[in-house]
Amino acid sequence: MKTLYMIGGTMGVGKTTICQQLKNTLPQSVFLDGDWCWDANPFLITEETKAMVIDNICYLLNNFMRCSAYDNVVFGWVMHEQTIIDSVIERLDLQAYTTKCISLVVNESELRNRLAQDIQAGIRNESVVQRSIERLPMYQNLNTIKIDTSNKSIQTIVKEIIEC
Fold first, then answer.
1. Tally of structural domains, the chain
2. In 3D, which of 20, 45, 14 has the Cα closest to residue 32?
């Protein structure tokens, strides 16, 4: 059976790193980062741009899932609201797929440390810290499997995702 892994989590939780490793661990895999579907300057959040990014994501995911070369499709994005997850799932052709919806979570102290490292490396702006911390509790309300990434190796987290 083919599997779609929908990996959500707040900024700095480790989604991209985990998704890349998951892609490299699973056979016949492809990875889509939702941020690639909405990389704009200026970054505008409007009803039109929100609809556009969901269209982009669903188009690419459906194409990946229709391609016989892939048995595992990994999708990572913030997905902090159930409506976001639902709006993606309802537009996908999941007939040949099992779907695993996972939220990566982390304790606040660890999140602050990770974001501080990213800020120091020039990867992120300081404004992300408060926004990311404010979103942390939102993941507890989602209909997803929660995987705590605090003080765990990438390999351990990937193993937990595969086994859930």
1. 1
2. 20
| Rounded CA separation 142/160 (Å) | 18
pTM of the model: 0.94
> What is the average pLDDT value for the chain, to the nearest integer?
95
Q: What is the pLDDT of residue 147?
A: 98
CATH number at residue 38: 3.40.50.300
Note whether residue 138 is domain-resident. Answer: yes
Q: What's the token pair of residue 128?
A: 């992300």
pLDDT of 40: 84
Question: Residue 158 domain-assigned?
Answer: no
Q: Please give, one letter per residue, the 3-state secondary structure of 95-118.
A: CCEEEEEEEEECCHHHHHHHHHHH
> What does the alpha-carbon distance between residue 157 and residue 147 come to, in Å, rounded to a whole number?
7
Q: Which whole number is the average pLDDT over 36-54?
A: 91
